[in-house]
UniProtKB/TrEMBL annotation:
Keywords: Kelch repeat, Repeat, Signal. SUPFAM superfamilies: Kelch motif. The keyword Transmembrane does not apply. This is Galactose oxidase. It comes from Catenaria anguillulae PL171. It comes from the Eukaryota. Residues 1-27 form the signal peptide. The keyword Glycoprotein does not apply.
Length: 401
């Protein structure tokens, strides 16, 4: 087993990769970490989480991972920040611009010591030339009056792409009132002001569920995948797109290759959706602009066989994964993992994606992709859609062959 990675924050020591008592059933024990990818500052911020093998399970850790240079995943360059004011996991992150001088990262709700969080606090990130950005926790804490239930689908890995959408926004869909309460199908919208507001949705809509996955497809639509209802044996494989403008859902015509919950979604180059976790096969991919069927992806290299509630963000041609539970027999106990993406042709000559675990490195090779710096979804037409398609909004036409 590799040497432990230790992250220190305000006296809290989080050790990953240290063999524990026989009762510990996970090799990698930290999940439910929220992140904020600040692409113009080459930085990934990490907040809170849940450590399944610790007596202090809900965490106050906060850190910044530099993406400015190549690094080893055995020793990722994480610098500690001011700790969270409360031990919290599953925080909903919202990024807003500070006029070219940096960003504010607002963190709301979440779960703290088995109770639903109901507060919002903010980290201010200031550009610092060629040096690492300056990050400061603001003293103001906003008390909310809306409580989002446990385990909704939300974008755990917020990015500056989302800052261009209505000046910073995030969403939460579904969840359950733990431990005995019902599963719900509501949607909440989070903005820079802190407490979320309920969104009125048209029907049909996804059935009530918890621990589904959510990702922005572009500036106009979201994708919801999976989740579970009643218990973890009733897991969904359906997918739905959501129009932000019309507040309406459209069911995707295909299901994932297996039911999935506690997983992550990312979008690569506007058209590819990659699903990661929880059980094997770990990675699926689909070309959503054509309405294609998800396929199990080819993944080379050595990586986790399963991964529960990781936060995933695309950086160039790599997916950076933060946290996530792995099985006890799994020797991949890293906090940071990197999955390389390669565009290839399949056996029929069609476009496809292949993946490889970068066991020991993240490469800062810059790939020119405007999506890294600005989010073009509001103005961009997706040319692959069929002209007879159903129309979600004036900006986007969706066809499902």
């Amino acid at each position: 087993m590799t040497a432990p990675f230790v992250l220190l924050a305000a006296g809290l020591c989080l050790c990953l990769g240290i063999a524990g008592p026989a009762t510990v059933t996970r090799a990698s024990s930290t999940k439910d970490i929220s992140t904020a990818h600040l692409a113009p500052l080459s930085s990934l911020l990490l907040f809170g989480g849940y450590n399944a093998s610790s007596s202090s399970q809900y965490l106050t850790i906060a850190g910044i991972l530099s993406l400015a240079s190549t690094f080893s995943t055995d020793a990722p360059p994480i610098t500690s920040l001011d700790p969270l004011p409360f031990p919290t996991s599953r925080l909903v992150p919202v990024i807003t611009s500070r006029g070219g001088n940096g960003f504010d990262v607002h963190l709301s709700n979440g779960v703290m010591n088995g109770q639903l969080g109901n507060r919002t606090f903010t980290y201010t990130v200031t550009a610092n030339g060629s040096s690492a950005p300056k990050v400061k926790l603001q003293s103001k804490v906003i008390e909310g009056n809306v409580q989002v239930p446990f385990a909704p689908a939300y974008v755990a890995a917020a990015s500056t792409k989302m800052d261009a959408m209505d000046g910073g926004v995030n969403w939460a869909v579904g969840g359950r009132y733990y431990p005995e309460g019902p599963f719900v199908d509501k949607m909440w919208v989070f903005g820079r002001d802190g407490p979320p507001s309920a969104e009125q949705q048209t029907q049909p809509s996804p059935s009530p569920r918890a621990d589904a996955a959510l990702v922005p497809l572009n500036g106009t639509h979201l994708l919801l995948s999976g989740g579970y209802t009643t218990n973890t044996s009733t897991t969904h494989s359906d997918m739905w797109t959501y129009s932000i403008a019309s507040k309406s859902w459209l069911k995707y015509p295909h299901s994932t290759t297996r039911p999935r919950s506690h997983h992550a979604l990312v979008v690569f180059k506007h058209k590819w959706v990659v699903l990661i976790g929880r059980e094997p096969p770990l990675v699926e991919v689909m070309e959503w602009t054509w309405g294609s069927k998800p396929k199990v992806a080819e993944v080379k290299g050595t990586g986790p066989q399963g991964l529960e509630t990781t936060a995933a963000v695309v950086v160039g041609t790599q997916i950076v994964l933060v946290g996530g539970l792995t099985a006890s027999e799994d020797k991949d106990d890293r906090l940071i993992r990197v999955l390389k993406i390669q565009e290839v042709k399949d056996g029929a000559g069609a476009e496809a994606l292949a993946f490889e675990w970068y066991r020991t490195k993240f490469t800062n090779t810059f790939v020119f992709d405007l999506d890294c710096l600005t989010f073009l979804g509001h103005n961009q037409q997706v040319k692959h859609f069929h002209p007879t398609a159903l129309r979600h909004s004036p900006q986007l036409t969706i066809a499902f062959p």
